[in-house]
UniProtKB/TrEMBL annotation:
GO terms for cellular component: mitochondrion. Pfam families: ACAS_N, AMP-binding, AMP-binding_C. It comes from Crassostrea virginica. GO terms for molecular function: acetate-CoA ligase activity; AMP binding; ATP binding. SUPFAM superfamilies: Acetyl-CoA synthetase-like (SSF56801). This is Acetyl-coenzyme A synthetase. CDD domains: ACS.
Amino acid sequence: MAWSVHCKSMLGRGLAGLRRVNDLKVAACSFLMQHRTLSTKFPEFQSNPQLQTHDQIYKFSLENPDQFWSTLARSRLQWSTDFDTIKDCDINEGRIRWFLGGQLNASVNCVDRHLETHGDSTALIWEKDEPGTEEHVTYRQLSQMVNRIANMLKNHGVRKGDRVAIYLPTSPVAIACMLACARIGAVHSVVFAGFSAEALAGRILDAEAQTVITADEGVRGGRKIPLKKVVDEAVSQCSCVKRVFVYRRTGEGNLGKNDFSLDDEMAKESDICEPEVMESEELLFMLYTSGSTGKPKGIAHSTAGYLLYALMTQKHVFDYKVGERFGCVADIGWITGHTYVVYGPLLNGATTVLFESTPIYPDAGRYWEMTERLKLEHMYLAPTALRMLLKEGDDFVIKYNRSSLRKLGCVGEPLNHEAFEWYRDVVGGGRCDVIDTWWQTETGGICITPRPSEDGAPILPAMPMRPFYGIAPALVDQNGKEVEGNDVKGALCIKSVWPGMARTIYGDHPRFLNTYYNPYPGYYFSGDGARRTKDGYYQITGRMDDVLNVSGHRLGTAEIEDVLDDQEEVAESAVVGFHHEIKGEGIYAFVVLKGESDMNLDELATELRGMVKTRISSFAQPDKILFTPGLPKTRSGKIMRRILRKVAADKPDELGDTSTLFDPSIVEAIVTKHEMVYGKKA
């Protein structure tokens, strides 16, 4: 019986009929709610009636991971040789291998396969530092750049498996260099072009890179950044480096004896370069991230698995549609830039924005002016930027037309309620999904996110909510036992394996196992804590190890302490994080001096900050430095950092058990000094 006829029949039966109509309406609504369409559909599964809802597909991805991922790998990647083994994984041993026997090339998948269908469409929009200045690069032009650089590298002796260090600002030539490495089978190691010469040298040496690619200068926020000068200082410490290619960004500076002009060398080369055939598990890139021991970790990602996961997450988390412009404003020196500026969008044939500037140059309207001018459908940025822009007021936002926006993403650190609501209501005008994502350098791509889901499913503030396909989160207690049920907390682990997982720490696989797999056998350990709400959604509570998250940048406390301890007046130091309204987490350094120092403490604090800036980066400088008579230590000599965290958080009444301290009076002295220098919060 048709719905309208059935309703008339019920209406003809009086009050009882009306109640029946209402009951049927409720039932119909319930049915529709349970059978809503997916936020982003799967063409591969449309003919299967058992795989039509988000819950069905998510469950299928966990229960049948081989079928799920192999179907997508064959459908969405271009292979020169099909794989014969879907996976060889043992999470207990930290062994992750996917699509064995398969062969492909990343640059072919990102560029070549799009040339026939939309080679003349825009691949890259370079939003240069100069306000209102943009450059468009088509897929065909990008292909020519990639091939020329690939030939240049080969003709200078770079071979398959060699590591190439890239120290460039976010720009078309930087993306072309990454893809050129992939084309010839070299492993790119992009280093954020804001790290110091010492930090850069450490990464070059660890990677044993013989080739460095940089620019004469970077330009950011109206200021010139002497990149070549930093590289020269770094390379002077690296006997492994044989050649440095220098891209002309400003035209300043001269070349040394082992330097080559990237522009001139490219011009000599053909724009045709046969791609290297790569095995699925051969390395695509390595990217350094901070560790709790002080030595940065070269996180290594393989080719096929990473490509598939980057493609899938960019498509399904953001519901990317062909022809849209994707505005991820991350730097390519971080994993967000790798996955959601470069690989994810290009694999999907998208137009991706390369943002060279800062959110506040020339003013706090920079993102939104760019959104209006470029007609962006997607914005993906860090909570730090949001909190900073929120304080500048709404006027910088509402003066620009943002009607093109569909999805608003966030990445790097937990997004607080106020910033979430401002992003949704002011920036998005209440129209756009706010997608607060959780993932890591080690995971390759987004792991927990409000989308994908059923179309129109609720999005709650301050939490990433739902696991992505193939991701099975687990909360584990301090005894290594999984915590079941809802409204519980624990260490955030993942008990499934997925293609995008990192394969190792370059040159140190034991450290890889000890960091991610040995703490909780049978699980991947993220280092973060999380809560599962009463409704079963996931909320990130922060780091559980000695790693800070400052403006979305991961910093090991040991890295900073090593620098501070090198000052001749300093006996020892301890660094902890504290809540920072703009950066999410600030850096608080407790410093103990050697006996009585004649040095002015303000001058010493300035010197210490300068040392950190020089040896690590400006964003690693401590926000607060407190000179103390000692540090709270156990009788075995271990620093009790939880006490320092409570002091930094202005919670001296919540220090907990201090019975194991060697000298409890030190804590009282630290609390008194903290309140005297920084004041007690009301």
